[in-house]
Amino acid sequence: MASGLEEQIARLEAVATRLEKVSLGGKKKAAAADEVELSEGAEEFVEFRKNEVEAALKAIENIPDYVKGVEALGVKIRAAYDNVTDYVCKSDSCKQPTPEELQKAVAPIIEAIGHYDGLIYSRKKGMMDWQFHHKALHASMDALIWVSMKPPGGMPKTQAQSGMESTDFNLNKIIMNKPCSDENKAFAVAMKAMGKRMTEIVKAHYKTGLPWSGTKSVLEASGAPAANTTAAPAATEEKAPEPKKAAPKKEAKKPKGDIADELSKGLAITGSLKKVKKSQRNKYKKEKISGKVSTGPKKAKAKKKLPDPRKNKRGKTWFLEYFQEGLITIDTEFLPNLDASVGLFIASCLNCQFLVAEGVKLKSIVIDGCKRVQVQSGDIVSTVEMVNSQNCTLWLNGVTPALTIDKCDSPKIVLMPPCYDQEKQCEILTSNVTAGNVELPPVGDADGKVLPIPEQFFFKVDKETQTGECTTMQHAG
Asked: Within this chain, do residues 220 and 320 fall inside the same structural domain, yes or no?
């Protein structure tokens, strides 16, 4: 009787073991079915979270002497970047969320924006000393709103870039606030690198927003495993320890031979090479790839076809319009009756050069609405003006009393020796100028200097005298 009972117990144990194995195998298959291969953009964003974001978070943690009794600076930003990484990865397996789902899915980002906004306007003692840190982190959180944008409602790359530009602006103020500690400098450098990398990823993969190529809900889908900074160990069945085997003797390294001989042994030598995906091959890309390599600056392009070049004289001013390509020499043969009472007006020209002949003296020169145009002047009686132009260069090669630049992008002013060596220097007035430079000629054996035209200013109000003082913002890094 006892032996029969023992046999039944053994059979039940065997059945239970088989059922456990079947159940475990089913779970593994279900988990494998739920796995979704991440897109190239999501993979790059995960690497961005592990590298640039983690470096910025560590730099924030290293900043000493933050206000006591206030939550650490990096807590909210860490939660926000973890959330946005998870959200980006979910877009490969989920459907586009509704506005209500979006609010819940990006709650950590919204919370971080409100947190840093509250710190900016906090009246707590000591908080004003950290206002630029708070503003930089707040702008960094604003940049993350790109995940909710899709044309025509908004452009993700524009939101990401504008947010990081605002971040850089406040980081520059931290650096210029003397004395600036090494920890603050490291914080600024890491934040700038993080913002630059995120903008690159958005421009490369998410110009029109997240893809949303699945059917799941972002609220029901589990967190993307690729969004974690550390991978969790896989669950395995416990096995009896195997007896240790003697370690094989290491073979002596053979000298490297011809690469063809190594490849002929098989594909093991290429096992560590990165696998090229189908989407990365030129023949499968939507855009056409040209094998032509071009150098030099890009030529400006007109939005619409320009009329034929023309020149005409109105009163005492010669008008030159719609010239494209080539070198145009300004002399009495090209423009009759040139003298010191005649002005020159260059308008709507592209990719060309104007050279005022030696000995020709003009009343004034005006450059309006031109792109990638270069003008070399001689002696000027009145002024030289540049308005609404892009990537234009002025070579001042004579007496020039004054120069005015307004609403121009990337202008370059070169003061040549005949202009620079005058007793009275050229007076330069600028307004709404971006990325402008003034080049000075070399003095002696020294190289010539390049002076940037200021774009940002620091305005300080004196409370006692109720007056304002404006100084140029000096950028570092």
From this structure: no
Q: Give Cα 246 to chain centroid, integer Å.
A: 55
Nearest to 396 by CA among 425, 369, 382, 375: 375
Q: Which residues contact 372 (CB under 8 A, 6 or more apart)?
A: 297, 299, 300, 350, 351, 390, 391, 392
| Closest to 359 (Cα-Cα) out of 398, 393, 319, 318 | 398
User: Does one domain contain both 222 and 354?
Assistant: no
CATH number at residue 361: 2.160.20.70
Least confident of 140-154, 252-266, 421-435, 460-474: 252-266
Of 209, 227, 245, the residue at which a domain comes to its end is 227
Q: Is the pTM of this model over 0.70?
A: no
Q: How confident is the model at residue 228 (pLDDT cuts 50, 70, 90)?
A: very low
Out of 196, 227, 258, pick the residue that ends a domain.
227
Quote the domain boundaries for residue 450: 310-472
How does pLDDT run across 308-352, given as a tens digit for each residue? 999 999 999 999 999 998 899 999 999 998 999 999 999 999 999
Bridge-partner residues for 462, per DSSP?
A: 467
How confident is the model at residue 272, as a pLDDT? 57
Domain count of the fold of the chain: 2
Please tell me the distance from the alpha carbon of residue 312 to that of residue 432, in angstroms, as a whole number.
30
Distance CA 59, CA 190 (A): 7
